[in-house]
UniProtKB/TrEMBL annotation:
Residues 23-336 form the Enoyl reductase (ER) domain. InterPro entries: ADH-like_C (IPR013149), ADH_N_2 (IPR041694), ER (IPR020843), GroES-like_sf (IPR011032), NAD(P)-bd_dom_sf (IPR036291), Quin_OxRdtase/zeta-crystal_CS (IPR002364), Zn-ADH-like_protein (IPR051397). It comes from the Bacteria. One of its GO terms (molecular function) is zinc ion binding. It comes from Microbispora rosea. Signal peptide: none annotated. This is Enoyl reductase (ER) domain-containing protein. It holds the Pfam family ADH_zinc_N.
Length: 338
């Protein structure tokens, strides 16, 4: 191991399981021995990692059947990251300085399986942490958006939503509507993120305001929120509408919720009478991810899309960034730069 590497590194661990939303008081910055790569692994210095709302669910105990294990006190948090290779076995495809994507964020150094380097597919390496692949898969593979249709995205200023509106526009949607709880975010959605209208959630029923924004109904829904907003989407759906559920922010961001269930009552008569398709989506396969990365890179370089994100410097600021995410303070993806 090169002598310039430190003996120890910092990582963020769960100190205790909170009764409500996790915050800095429930996490700890721990000093640990530098990881030692095993067979087929490389050592990386994390450059960026993502702060994402599903950590609430993992900290609360997880959900059976989902791809990620629950977090218990003493465990290091994890999540999407981009790391720079600092040590790699001779004869492999990776060299020091290469960037790789992996899922061992929330730490300064990680031993991760050797994978293909990221290269220059995206002009900004941190953009590999964007959640656009989920939005892209929902629109192209599940809902199969057609030109001229009306699209509704709940949580339109979040990590998925801030790209879903732009993608829908590029795929030919005639009208794109998003929901948000912040007037400032609503302004950015219509000015920067591809939305024709932003429906503001202000504590009252949202259904009437959605009907005003989409008087002829909606054809495609990308739902990142659930709860009342999913109910309103079903009410606004046109015959043959396709609804794709990709998140449960209503439950994950609520202090009153346990974080591991997201119950919502839907009108089955509406589903039947309108022949509505309702599907969930978790994760994307390699084929879709590759296709998305190619298109995302081309769109970024041409200026057709932006990567809305908040970049926060310093791993020690990650616990506060998680609390701020739950409080809805940021637009787009929240990225920690280490």
């Amino acid at each position: 191991m090169p002598p310039t590497l430190p003996r120890t590194a910092r990582e963020i661990r769960l100190a205790e399981v909170p009764s409500g939303l996790p915050g800095p008081e429930h996490l700890t910055v721990s000093e640990v021995p530098l990881p030692v790569p095993g067979a087929g692994e490389v050592l990386v210095r994390n450059r960026w990692f993502q702060v994402f709302p599903s950590l609430r669910t993992l900290i609360a105990g997880g959900v059976p059947g989902t791809p990620f294990p629950p977090l218990r006190p003493g465990d290091a948090l994890f999540g999407p990251a981009v790391g720079e290779v600092v040590a790699a076995p001779a004869g492999g495809d990776l060299r020091p300085g290469d960037l790789v994507a992996h899922f061992q964020g929330w730490r300064e150094y990680a031993a991760v399986p050797a994978a293909a380097p990221l290269g220059d597919a995206l002009p900004d390496p941190a953009a590999h942490l964007a959640s656009g692949a989920t939005a892209y898969a929902a629109l192209t593979r599940v809902a199969r958006l057609r030109a001229g249709e009306t699209v509704l995205v709940t949580g339109g200023a979040g990590g998925v939503g801030s790209l879903a509106g732009q993608i829908a526009r590029l795929l030919g949607a005639a009208r794109v509507i998003g929901t948000t709880g912040s007037p400032a975010k609503a302004g950015r959605m219509t000015a920067e993120l591809g939305y024709d209208a932003a429906v503001l959630r202000d504590g009252g029923p949202i259904g009437g305001r959605l009907a005003e924004a989409a008087p002829d109904g909606v054809d495609v829904v990308v739902d990142t929120v659930g709860g009342e907003q999913l109910q309103a989407a079903v009410a606004a759906a046109r015959p043959g509408a396709r609804l794709v559920v990709v998140g449960t922010l209503a439950a994950q961001l609520s202090p009153a919720s346990g974080g591991t269930t997201a119950p919502v009552e839907l009108d089955a008569f509406q589903l039947i009478a309108k022949n509505i398709t309702l599907r969930g989506l978790t994760g994307v396969d390699d084929e879709i991810h590759t296709e998305w990365t190619e298109r995302f890179g081309a769109w970024l370089r041409s200026g057709a899309v932006t990567f809305p994100h908040t970049r926060i410097a310093g791993i020690e600021r990650a616990p506060l960034a998680l609390r701020e995410l739950f409080e809805g303070r940021h637009v787009g993806t929240v990225v920690i730069e280490t």
